[in-house]
Amino acid sequence: MFGRRFEQPANKSFSKSQKVNKSSSSFSKTHGVSKSRHEPRQHRRPATAASANATDLSPPGTLTPSIVTLVIGKDQRIFAAHEDVLSASPWFQQALSSQYMDSQNSKRILLPDEEPEIFSSILEYLYKGDYYPRLIHNKRRNSWEIEQIEDDGQRSKDATIYHNSVHGAVLKDTVIYCTADKYGLEELKRVSLRKQGLQSGIPCCTILTSARYAYDNTPDTDSKLRAHYLALIIRSRSTFKRSGTMQLEMCNGGTQLFFDLFVALCNHVDDISSAQNTPRSNRHFF
Description:
By secondary structure, the protein is α+β, with helices and mostly antiparallel strands. Helix content is 41%, strand content 14%. Strand 8 (160-163) and strand 9 form a beta hairpin.
């Protein structure tokens, strides 16, 4: 799961967007991806959100030696993964036996439109059942949290990536959700959606850019990610109605987002009106 430039020799390293100081990883043919971060036994982290599915998502102890080379992004970063692991995705299962193979019929897949940082997270999920930063279950509060990062400013930076298709910052979890939808990884969609609901301190412009990206990269039948952004904007309406970026985006149009937002706001107002008109004696039945 290491990125390097396509023309460089076999000395592999993470792609630039991967932060080595947080988690340096190594790739081995027998164990796939393994992290070299060592923690004292008494400070081991609690189980993550995907721990219940770890048996299904983690590669078996005896993987086939078949390795697939993946060339990612415009800079042609090189990644490697076991064919058995990639086959958990219906898209890759088909790609490994169809026209997506290169002309020499070697086990190599070219994905020039993918972002290396996002694809690194996809591979991390396929091998470990989650991706950085992980979901942690707080047993005392019985709630899910994103693992703590000492530097809050760094956490805000980690929440977004620069995406070439929009020439700006987009929420990382949104891009992962859309990529998971493309590759048929339903559980990864659920994990990334839950993480998005736990994010805070994201600027309005980034939320709107991410919402537009979500609409451009999900089918009209999507009822999760799109609804998440509609609900988020409605909940934060006092902020968005004063946002110059919101006004500019609405003037530019070109997306189904704002009509859906209008319908959602109308439904919200109707619900409030209905609750106000319901006799007090009958409200307990709803």
